[in-house]
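Sequence of 26S proteasome non-ATPase regulatory subunit 4 (Larinioides sclopetarius).
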Amino acid sequence: MVLESTIICVDNSDYMRNGDFLPTRLQAQQDAVSLICHSKIRSNPENNVGLLTLANRPEVLTTLTTDVGKLLSKLHQVQPKGYISLCTGIRVAHLALKHRQGKHHKMRIVIFVGSPIDDDDKEIVKLAKKFKKEKVCVDMVNFGEDAANTDKLTLFINTLNGKDGSGSHLVTVPPGPHLSDALVSSPVVQGEDGSGAVGIGGMGFEFGVDPNEDPELALALRVSMEEQRQRQEEEARRNVSATTNEQQTGQPAADEQAVAMSLATESNTTTASPAVPDFSAMTEEEQIAYAMQMSLQQTLLSSKVNVK
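Predicted 3D structure, token representation.
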């Protein structure tokens, strides 16, 4: 069986609110990511998986782990925001893979793309050539905006595979009720040796987990989803309340809000967090140092959350 370390890149842009995949693109994507996580771990217990979000500044949600419960818990906390930064996200995923404990593991990145891609073709080709040289495989799930993205994603995969390669794949999924159903028989789930689909019969259960096999995990995921629904409902109520207040107070309140937003923007400009560095201009040592810094920051944030 193939030993792999896999980083799954989740598209969490504002486009994920669309309902052409039921119930929304984001929730359909969460089910599909759950399917892939299960298939990777069940195909080989030594495989490990990590999660990364692509919108705005790419963020590593979970470093490489074999704990599916941890992966799914983080996955169901993801909220839509902003726009994706595809090439930057792929580079961050690559850096996370470089820190895998099993150095004999093959490196693979699975990327969900459901938003328009703004990356330049030259940058896409350059990144694909680098991955080909470093033997990094990439699977791309193209959905939602396939008319706009297919050419760019095909260019990336074809450049990465070369004339004789076949380790990387592009799967384009048309709108439908279940994104995960379209992936079950695809190379993304089946894997190179076809072992990835072993034991995924539980995907018919809620959250992809048979409660008879793992009742604690099923309960944890159910609670996580309920908390997510409550947050979404509370956010919707706040938006309705804000809209009502704005209509009642009229133009003066709108002017005050505009001034406040302007001041906030100016303040944010002076205190903004450092931008994502240009990885193409960094040496490998600088890239590794940056990745280690990210890991330390994530550990510190997790510790603060646990203390609270």
